Amino acid sequence: MAVKNNYIVIPAYNPDVRLIALLKELSEKLEAVLLIVNDGSRLETKEIFQEAERYGIVLQHDRNYGKGKAVKTALTFIREQMDSGRIIIADADGQHTAADIARLLEAKTIEKNVLIIGSRCFQGKIPLRSRLGNQLTRAAFWLLSGRWLKDTQTGLRAFDSTLIPMLLEISGDRYEYETNMLLTCIKEKIRIVEVPIETIYLEGNKSSHFRPLKDSARIYMTMLKFVSSSFLSFCIDYLLFGILLSLTSGLGVITADAVSNIMARIVSASFNFIVNRNYVFQYKGSLLQSALGYAALALSILAVNTAMLLWLVRDWGMGGLEAKIVVEVTIFFLNFLVQKFFIFKKRPVHTAL
């Protein structure tokens, strides 16, 4: 039996009878306060939530705000109305079993500065969009955080209530909140522990309210902004390179390529620094320090960039414009990782608990 002051938070949007079955089993097997958040569900689900009130407390949203907002509503309620304790976040569609919820709730590792996540193994018959989505998200998350997690999209999570102030400050009202929670925990040195859970996809995962395009865009927003910034910088770089290449053609192929590449890179790198600092990574640290760090990176990349460019032109016989594209694509991810983890790395801002 779980200890006292346990809370199980279940965001629910247009749930069916599987929610009631889960609540019934949880109330029978666990000693915990069940908090169900009606996230602006249709009127047809009114009876479901009325039945849910037999097992726990139902919090209401006047419209659909998203899973992140629903979690924050429940956490605010716990902070203001309840005692401290252990908190579980679980899905309402039956993809998290009562046994797995109990496993996380009773984990001995739940303490201050620890986030426990239920990690699915993704073996067996998994819907294609779910398998690909999780693989892409794991890779993108590794690029963003430097930490490899087996399941970054799991909705089953456990933590001590001392983390509530920090969790309420995390941005995002929809599914991106779950990814932002993981990123924030890594930034704040909160230990993340993965606990294996059962992998369940019901009816090809039709019950999921995840919107592949919109919600993926929210999750990958930092990466998408970096790609956009890099693409604009590349366009400036490539355009100037072409113009300068034609103006310096009388200097000889190798000299013209080198001079044009260096001059175009200086302009595009300056643009890239301003955009990445202010809009992509939203860095608030020292301007001088970040500028010096970026300048060192830019010079290093410029040296590698130019050397690779000349090598492709001279030894492989490629045209200058074609070689330029190959070089830029090659160094893109290295550029992102260095900027993310060294140039614009945010210092942890610890929340008073």
Automatic annotation (TrEMBL):
Cross-referenced CDD domains: DPM_DPG-synthase_like (cd04179)
GO molecular-function term, one example from the UniProt record: transferase activity
Keywords per UniProt: Membrane, Transferase, Transmembrane, Transmembrane helix
Database matches in Pfam families: Glycos_transf_2, GtrA_DPMS_TM
Domain (Glycosyltransferase 2-like): residue spans on this chain: 8-122
Biological process terms in GO annotation: polysaccharide biosynthetic process; protein N-linked glycosylation
Subcellular location: Membrane
Superkingdom classification of source: Bacteria
Any single Gene Ontology cellular-component annotation: membrane
First-listed, main subcellular location of the protein, grouped into a coarse class: membrane
UniProt key word Transferase: yes
Topology within the bilayer: Multi-pass membrane protein
TM regions (residue ranges): 231-256, 262-280, 292-313, 325-344
Domain GtrA/DPMS transmembrane: 225-344
Protein name per the record: Glycosyltransferase involved in cell wall biosynthesis
Species: Lacrimispora xylanisolvens
